Amino acid sequence: MNDVDKLFAQPLTKVSDFVFDHDVARVFPDMIKRSVPGYPTIVETIGLIAGQHAGPHTLIYDLGCSLGAATQSMRRHVRSQGCRIIAVDNAPAMVERCREYLSAQSAMTEELTPAEVIEADILELPLQPCSVVVLNFTLQFINPELRLPLLSRIRQALKPGGILLLSEKLRFDDPDQQQRLENLHYAFKRANGYSELEIAQKRSAIENVMRPDTLDTHLQRLQQAGFSQAHSWFQCLNFCSMIATCD
């Protein structure tokens, strides 16, 4: 059962760096729904886009799958024969709960695309040939120096016509734009019931863990990695989703 996110509701003597542990896994659906503008639209559309691009008898990767929201969406929308989804996360608590969610989805719905969840570091995971790769709010938690090598490996694994779906929180070079959208994001959180204390403590917990890039940085890096085209398909406040394609 999912709980309401109250992880930062009480004053903390020391705010530790954010980790995807059992406490976070327990409240994660509530946390992300109340924290990421447009998240349900992004997840549902990832499934739709994957359904358009998944080739028959190919693999699909959901890298940094957390609780498998994108995987569940793709299982519903991908209809190409012989496809299989591999969902990967390095946090044991997230992997455990993701498996529970996928098992429950399988029990409720027939004819879903097969999926398996594995616990692994996506920076070390050998990638097999595939037609779709999803990085849904994952790259921002990876060391910036390691982002291009990961994207290059993904590009090499993708078959011709394959796609990468990349969702990220954005930062902005213009200080006024950055402040304006940050303030709107905090207003979004307040509207969803978070207190000023919760917003401040969560910000402290995540600032050394999540390092956002600008949209231009993302698009330039995707070009460097060898993708033939890359563009954003969705943005709500300072959250964005992109698609990168291979010839």
UniProtKB/TrEMBL annotation:
E.C. number(s) listed in UniProt: 2.1.3.-
GO term, biological process aspect, one: tRNA wobble uridine modification
Pfam families: Methyltransf_25
Domain Methyltransferase: 60-162
InterPro entries linked to this entry: CmoA, Methyltransf_25, SAM-dependent_MTases_sf
Catalysed reactions listed for this entry: prephenate + S-adenosyl-L-methionine = carboxy-S-adenosyl-L-methionine + 3-phenylpyruvate + H2O
Binding site for S-adenosyl-L-methionine: Y39, G64, C65, S66, D89, N90, D121, I122, N136, R203
Top-rank taxon: Bacteria
Molecular function via GO: carboxyl- or carbamoyltransferase activity; S-adenosyl-L-methionine binding
Alphabetical keyword list: S-adenosyl-L-methionine, Transferase
Gene3D superfamilies: Vaccinia Virus protein VP39
Keyword Ribosomal protein included in the entry's annotation: no
Subunit record text: Homodimer.
Family: Belongs to the class I-like SAM-binding methyltransferase superfamily. Cx-SAM synthase family.
Function: Catalyzes the conversion of S-adenosyl-L-methionine (SAM) to carboxy-S-adenosyl-L-methionine (Cx-SAM).
Protein name, UniProt field: Carboxy-S-adenosyl-L-methionine synthase
